[in-house]
Amino acid sequence: MAKPRIGIIGTGAIGGFYGVMLARAGYDVHFLLRSEYQAVRQNGILIESQVHGELRLPSVQAYEDVTQMPPCDWLLIGAKSTSNDELAPLIARAAAPDARVLLLQNGLNNEEHLRQHLPQGLHLIGGLCYVCLYRKAPGVVVHQDNGMIDLGYHSGGADAAQQQAIIAEGAEMFRAAGLKAREMDSVDAARWQKLVWNAPFNGVSVVLNAGTDALLANPASRELILGLMEEVAGAARACGYPLPEKLPELLIAGTSRIPDYLPSMYHDWLHKRPMELDNLYGEALKLAAEAGYSMPRTETLLNMLRFIEAGYLSEN
């Protein structure tokens, strides 16, 4: 059976890493780029991995215009949620009939918001990446730890058996690339669980200008992180998604064992790009309020981040 053709829309850290891993496993991978197109065409993509060693894809099937891409059976969406309004036309143009669209984004309800703008025949899948990496330079990604991915079917008209087969197919692609992959019954529950880590560490790293090591070494910031985690976990329970017992403590213990890490929102702040505030915080606050649950710590953090973002965006 022929391997599916894979398209990467949003070839930054996430798209670059997973795209290179899949290409090295023998998949036919096509990359859509914007500002990094010339650099990638000339030099390829380099993954400086502390897990797998140096991974170089010297010859990249790269495009700066989606109309040049061949129709793809799978589309991996690595672009951040701040660009979701622009994504639907690109996805529709690059997708083969009955394509699987895997949304690799942080936050809540991303699939729900994108679904209404996509052709009905496309299968939309939620993907959650557990990976520490960042873009070092055009076409250069530093991979520090992990790489596991969760997949859960969102919508597209498939019956239960077809949904299971589609998710199994996607998980097997990543396993063939040497990565762990889990098949999830509920993508919404998985997104809430990941948010318990993402919401505190992303925002606090910006406000306090610090990585994970410093944040966990200081008792005050550690207590702040733990309080935010417990608040997000409480919101998840209020919204009908009970999470594992003592999840915040387990996540903090796990974070203390990885290399010092600056989350993706920190890099957005550092490079004066819009931050994913609505999807990481606004959506959680809205859903929690609808369930009658208050998130004062999270709301305060969001207000500080909005102030910071407004300051540097007004300068651009």
From TrEMBL:
Q: What exactly does this protein do? A: Catalyzes the NADPH-dependent reduction of ketopantoate into pantoic acid.
NCBIfam families the record matches:
apbA_panE, PRK06249.1
Name the family: Belongs to the ketopantoate reductase family.
Enzyme category, top tier? oxidoreductase
Q: Does the keyword tRNA processing apply?
A: no
Q: What is its EC number?
A: 1.1.1.169
Q: Which residues cross the membrane?
A: 6-27
Question: Which part of the chain is the Ketopantoate reductase N-terminal domain?
Answer: 6-155
Q: In which pathway does it act?
A: Cofactor biosynthesis; (R)-pantothenate biosynthesis; (R)-pantoate from 3-methyl-2-oxobutanoate: step 2/2
Tell me which domain of life the UniProt entry assigns to the organism this sequence originates from.
Answer: Bacteria
- Alphabetically list the UniProt keywords: Membrane, NADP, Oxidoreductase, Pantothenate biosynthesis, Transmembrane, Transmembrane helix
What range(s) does the Ketopantoate reductase C-terminal domain occupy? 187-309
Query: What is the protein name given in its UniProt record?
Result: 2-dehydropantoate 2-reductase
Q: Which reaction does it catalyse?
A: (R)-pantoate + NADP(+) = 2-dehydropantoate + NADPH + H(+)
Where, if anywhere, are coiled coils annotated?
Answer: none
